[in-house]
Design a protein that fits this description.
Blueprint lengths: L1 E6 L3 H16 L3 E6 L4 H5 L4 E4 L4 H5 L2 E2 L9 H22 L5 E5 L6 H8 L3 E5 L25 H14 L4 H9 L9 H6 L4 E2 L17 E2 L13 H8 L5 E4 L5 E2 L2 H11 L4 E4 L14 E4 L4 H4 L5 E4 L3 H10 L3 E3 L6 H10 L3 E3 L8 H11 L2 H11 L6 H13 L1
Parallel strand pairs: 1-2, 1-5, 2-3, 4-10, 5-6, 6-7, 7-8, 9-11, 9-13, 11-12, 13-14, 14-15
């Protein structure tokens, strides 16, 4: 069986389908990934095929800027980008899928993928990495650039989901224009068409349980995580061995203020704690490194996280679940979209702290969140949570795909 795995997004959106692709390979199937060009070389290092799609995401969303890191796009420019994205999906994903038997599309920007599968008469699976991507009365929809409270009533949440469903209308005209080229009829509800009534959820059922609306049946497999033994760099190993466990600081692929690195390092320093600062796509580098801080590039988080005292991060699905698996308490400083949900869940479970928002961080409030995170009851709860995590989500998903479609 040849499977096309498609994801539109940064490293956190791509790594899960790499994990799924590797598990499919173990079962004797072939996987081709369709992702941003930033990840082609990395994916091919695993022996997986890769078809790049779209622009260089690091150039679009990475780096540091003075003041608040706002993406510089007007409403008109965003509509143009949306139209270009959908056309690009029909062209690139359509070509990549021609010899495939199945498409798995991950993330809430898979506007064209189901139409491509239907035109080729092959099965289509939509997969979310976080339950908040899927409509529910238990939580509000995620939003780009802002967020809703997680203490709203079920009726309020349902109303917000109706409005969110309508917001996908901006993709309707271009989607139906492209569908008409292959003789397909128009789609009335873009969001429901993309999600289907039987979406998959690649998230841990204890950390992030599904609560779908009536009429939607969710297949929850557990998170799709890569099992790898890549060693940590020797410089990092030496730093870890040279004192008490440090604090990990990192915002992944998020754009950041030019003050962010200094604030994070000084917050740890104010508590007498050493720190490891992950540069990420923002290229975070503090002005004063000192001997109590080490700057690192991409490393194996699964090996690093069990060796640190706490993890301060942006709240990406992959980072949150890797931290939870490590049994290490975490402070989430949410930036965007589903990251507010992960901050809420970690705090709700007592395994970490929902920290200040990205634009509000100071040395004092990050230090305060870190102090709360390092309390004994939070540390113990994080360790307990790790013992209940599903460790084989990618394998479970691959076996299910093979049984159902292979």
């Amino acid at each position: 069986m040849q499977v096309l795995l498609s994801s539109i997004g940064s490293r956190g959106d791509v790594q899960p389908i790499v994990a799924l692709g590797l598990e499919l390979q173990k079962l004797g199937h072939r996987a081709r990934l369709c992702v941003a060009p930033n990840f082609k070389e990395w994916i091919e290092s695993y022996g997986l095929e890769c078809t790049p799609i779209g622009p260089d995401l690091r150039k679009m969303t990475g780096g540091t800027v003075p003041g608040k890191p706002v993406l510089p796009f007007s409403k008109e420019q965003l509509q143009q980008l949306a139209d270009q994205m959908v056309r690009g999906q029909f062209q690139v994903i359509g070509e990549a899928a021609r010899d495939c038997d199945l498409i798995v599309a991950a993330g809430a920007l898979q506007i064209a993928t189901r139409s491509i599968a239907e035109a080729l008469n092959i099965p289509y699976i939509f997969a979310a990495y976080c339950p908040v991507v899927l409509p529910s009365s238990k939580y509000p929809p995620p939003k780009m650039g802002e967020h809703y409270s997680h203490s709203l009533s079920e009726a309020e949440n349902e109303q917000l989901w109706k409005e969110d469903e309508e917001s996908f209308g901006k993709f309707g005209a271009i989607l139906n224009e492209e569908r008409a080229k292959t003789g397909q009829g128009p789609v009335k509800n873009v969001q429901r068409h993309m999600f289907t009534d039987r979406p998959w959820l690649a998230a841990d059922p204890v950390l992030a349980p599904a609560f779908p609306l009536t009429g939607m049946q969710v297949m929850q497999t557990g998170a799709w995580m890569i099992s790898e033994e890549t060693p940590l760099p020797s410089e990092l190993e030496e730093f870890l061995a040279d004192g008490e466990p440090p604090i990990y600081l990192g915002f992944g692929s998020m754009r950041a203020s030019d003050q962010t690195a200094g604030v994070l390092v000084e917050a740890a320093r104010s508590l007498g704690l050493r720190s490891i600062l992950s540069q990420g796509w923002a290229g975070l580098t503090p002005g004063d490194m000192g001997t109590d801080c080490l700057s690192i590039g991409d490393v194996n988080h699964a090996k690093l996280f069990p060796q640190v005292a706490a993890i301060v991060h942006h709240g990406g699905a992959g980072t949150t679940q890797t931290a939870a698996r490590a049994g290490t308490a975490q402070v989430i400083i949410p930036h965007n979209y589903d990251q507010f949900y992960w901050a809420h869940r970690v705090q709700e479970l007592g395994a970490g702290v929902s920290g200040p928002l990205r634009d509000d961080i100071t040395v004092d409030n990050v230090a305060q969140a870190l102090g709360e995170c390092l309390r004994l009851e939070v540390v113990r709860r994080a360790q307990e949570l790790a013992g209940h995590m599903e460790l084989d989500g990618a394998r479970i998903a691959a076996e299910r795909l093979a049984d159902e479609f292979g």
